[in-house]
Design goal:
single chain, alpha/beta, Rossmann fold, 5-stranded mixed beta sheet, 5 helices, Peptidase_A31, aspartic-type endopeptidase activity
Length: 160
């Protein structure tokens, strides 16, 4: 295994709370090892598959809107849970994470470890800033993503 860790912040910083993924990626600079790949994506499945190709661990940070949305509520999801959430959610992306995970599974291109950190969103209006609820949840979301990177690096450096 390569030990490669990729963090993907999915979203659009010009659309309010949808910018939370990119905001987390920016906040991780200097907080995680330099060899951690930090990227922002619009969530398009083929690009996502490209971004995580060859990675041992992928951490996805995403905005989530469910029918029972409570803005600022955090979720840490397995790929199966993320796919289940994605079926019943609205997304500001052309395709949701669920479609990306389904494509990755169909093509046998899922990474060995994938975790999704998501926050329930309130406002995705063009030009809006992060809502108060999401801004309040941001430090904990950053901590969760940082912890996932740390755990991945610890697993890679364990004696065999």
């Amino acid at each position: 295994m390569s030990g490669r860790v990729v963090v993907i912040g999915v979203g659009n910083p010009l659309r309010g709370d949808d910018g939370v993924g990119p905001a987390v990626v920016e906040a991780l600079r200097g907080r995680v090892p330099n060899d951690t790949v930090l990227v922002v994506s619009d969530g398009e499945p083929a690009r996502m598959l490209d971004l995580w190709r060859g990675a041992d661990t992928v951490v996805v940070v995403e905005a989530l809107r469910t029918p029972q949305a409570r803005a600022g509520e955090l979720h840490t999801l397995t790929p199966a849970e993320a796919a289940g959430h994605a079926r019943g959610t609205a997304s500001t992306h052309a395709f949701g994470l669920g479609q990306c995970l389904a494509l990755g599974e169909a093509l046998d291109q899922l990474p060995p470890r994938l975790v999704v950190h998501a926050v329930e969103i309130a406002d995705v209006a063009l030009g809006a800033a992060l809502s108060d609820a999401v801004r309040t949840a941001l430090p904990e979301l950053i901590d969760r993503a940082t912890a996932s990177v740390r755990q991945a690096n610890e697993r890679h450096h364990e004696p065999s």
